[in-house]
Specification:
The protein is α/β, with parallel strands linked by helices. It is built from 8 helices and 7 strands, in the order H-H-E-H-H-E-H-E-H-H-E-E-E-E-H.
């Protein structure tokens, strides 16, 4: 249940309590402190007033805090679950943007859902550049040398290019020099994202999903457009 709905219920309960107490106190001054008698004559007034107060609060909350400012995220324990989740979404999307470090996630998407990717879709895979300043840090976190990490990236690029040629899908491979701290997969109607953890490959760490109406989706869209300018991608 959303936080706003819970708040409205709490306000309703408090309104009932306050009105009942006020009625009982008023009756005390008339020499009658019978709670049952109070309910016999005032229960409909209490409920109606309480509902009105709750409704006013609820409407005010919806105006001040619209639905898209309170987001319910989906959580996935690894990339495998994410790739399975996007099974339906990916076939509807005209744009697939995969921002990652080495390309394992992008390869999984191609392996699992190649047949669902529309021939006209723009499929952009963005990997860490060999001159990325944080590449050595990420390689060290995985107990790898920088050269081994670069070799791993080149291997993924080669695999992706071969699959793209053989299956005639429109794949662009770009490279970034941004800190290697998170990855995301952006589709037309949602985004999946997650953070890299020390000593763990990205494919085994948690990822999250939010729809295109969310603040998260809009933020990543802005980030992507900014990167295009900074990195000079065409």
């Amino acid at each position: 249940m959303k936080k706003i709905n819970i708040s409205a219920i709490v306000i309703f309960a408090l309104s009932v309590t306050i009105l009942v107490l006020a009625g009982v106190i008023a009756n005390m001054y008339d020499g009658d402190i019978s709670v049952p008698r109070f309910f016999e004559s005032n229960i409909f007034f209490v409920i109606a007033t309480s509902l009105t107060v709750s409704l006013v609060f609820f409407v005010f909350s919806r105006l001040m805090f619209p639905n898209n400012s309170t987001i319910n995220y989906e959580n996935f324990p690894s990339t495998d679950y994410v790739v399975d989740s996007m099974k339906e979404d990916i076939g509807k999307s005209d744009r697939i943007i995969c921002f990652t470090a080495r390309g394992d996630t992008a390869t999984k998407i191609i392996d699992r859902h190649l047949s669902k990717i529309k021939p006209t879709s723009e499929f952009i895979i963005i990997l860490a550049d060999k001159d990325n300043p944080s590449l050595s840090i990420r390689a060290s976190a995985l107990n790898m040398t920088k050269d081994d990490y670069i070799t791993s990236i080149n291997s993924q690029v080669a695999n992706i290019q071969i699959r793209a040629r053989n299956d005639k899908i429109n794949v662009k491979t770009w490279f970034h020099k941004q800190p290697i701290c998170f990855r995301f997969i952006m589709l037309d109607n949602c985004i999946y994202w997650g953070f890299y953890e020390d000593k763990k490959t990205g494919t085994v760490t948690d990822m999250f999903k939010a729809d295109s109406a969310s603040v998260v989706y809009k933020a990543f869209c802005q980030y992507y457009e900014l990167l295009r300018l900074m990195e000079g991608w065409k």
